[in-house]
Design a protein that fits this description.
12 helices; about 45% helix; 9 strands; about 270 residues; Rossmann fold; alpha/beta; globular; nine-stranded mixed beta sheet
Length: about 270
C-alpha cells in the first residue's frame, strides 16, 4: 500500500528519514492509537522515549484532530497538530497519522472511521500496538478502543503484542497488568506533555500525570527493593482479544479485574 492510498495529508514524518515506506518495512514498529492529540504522551510518553533509546521506532495515529465537533478545519486543529509534532519530537517519535475526524464522527459515524484504522494497521503492520484500555471513562476513548479491536480482527495479520494504556487513572492490580519503569524518561515525558500548550494553559496536566506515574511506582509494584523506581506507566495485556475473537471487550475487562495473590512485577518495557 502506498502513501497515497492512506492519504498524503494524513501521514507526517516527525523525523525526516522515516518515510511511510521505511516505517512499514521495520520489523519492530510500535504503533500507538491516540483518540486525541496528547493522549499518547499522557498515557505512554515515558515508554515511547525508552523505546526510542532502544532504537525501536514509534508512530502514532491521532484519530481525531482535537477540533470542536463540526469544525474539522478550524485553527484549533492546526494548533493541536503542531503541538503533537513537538511533543513527539520530545520523546523521539518517528512519524504520525493525523486523521481528519472529530469526536462526534467517532461516536456517530464509526463506519467511516474504522476502515481507515484498518487500512493504516494493515499498511504498517506493527510489531506492537497500543490503545486506550477498556477502563477509560472518556466515551471517545472507549469507542476508539472498540473500533480498533474490530479493525484488528478484520486484518489478515495483526500485531504480536497488544497493550492498553491508561490516560486518567491507575489500573487495578491484575495478572495482565505490566509496570514499566519510566524513571529515566520521566522528564522527557513531562516536556512532551508541556508541548500541548493549548491544553496545559489552564491545567497542570504534566504535574498531575507525573503524579499518577509516581503513584503507580509506589503502589503498583509493592516491592520494598524497588525504591529506585520513582515513576512508572501501566499497560494492560490485551492479546486475549485477538486470540479469542468471540470474547467481548466487556467480558475481557471483567476478567482482567481478577486480582493475583502476589504483587505485580516491574518491567523495563511491555
Amino acid at each position: 500500500m502506498t502513501e497515497m492510498c492512506i492519504g498524503e495529508d494524513w501521514f507526517e514524518s516527525v523525523d525526516p528519514p522515516w518515510t511511510l515506506k521505511r516505517l512499514a518495512s521495520h520489523r519492530h514498529l510500535h504503533l500507538i492509537i491516540a483518540p486525541h492529540p496528547d493522549d499518547d504522551v499522557i498515557g505512554a510518553g515515558g515508554m515511547m522515549a525508552l523505546l526510542a533509546r532502544s532504537r525501536r521506532p514509534v508512530a502514532v495515529v491521532y484519530v481525531t484532530s482535537g477540533a470542536p465537533a463540526g469544525r474539522k478545519c478550524s485553527g484549533v486543529a492546526r494548533i493541536r497538530r503542531m503541538e503533537a509534532v513537538k511533543a513527539l519530537r520530545a520523546v523521539q517519535g518517528r512519524a504520525a497519522f493525523f486523521l481528519p475526524f472529530t469526536s462526534r464522527d467517532v461516536r456517530e459515524k464509526p463506519a467511516c472511521v474504522q476502515p481507515v484504522l484498518a487500512r493504516i494497521i494493515s499498511c504498517v503492520r506493527p510489531h506492537a500496538l497500543y490503545l486506550p484500555c477498556p477502563f477509560e471513562q472518556h466515551e471517545t476513548h472507549r469507542t476508539v478502543t472498540c473500533m480498533t479491536i474490530d479493525a484488528l480482527r478484520r486484518c489478515t495479520s495483526g500485531p504480536c503484542e497488544l497493550w492498553g494504556y491508561t490516560v486518567w487513572s491507575a489500573l487495578p492490580s491484575s495478572r495482565l497488568v505490566r509496570i514499566v519503569d519510566i524513571t529515566r524518561a520521566a522528564q522527557l515525558k513531562r516536556a512532551a506533555i508541556r508541548q500541548h500548550k493549548s491544553q496545559t494553559a489552564l491545567k497542570d496536566y504534566a504535574g498531575a500525570i507525573l503524579g499518577l506515574n509516581r503513584y503507580a511506582a509506589v503502589f503498583s509494584s509493592m516491592l520494598p527493593d524497588r525504591k529506585e523506581v520513582r515513576y512508572a506507566e501501566q499497560f494492560l495485556d490485551m492479546r486475549m482479544l485477538l486470540k479469542n475473537r468471540r470474547l467481548s471487550i466487556a467480558r475481557f475487562a471483567a476478567q482482567a479485574l481478577v486480582r493475583d495473590r502476589g504483587p505485580a512485577g516491574v518491567k523495563q518495557r511491555p
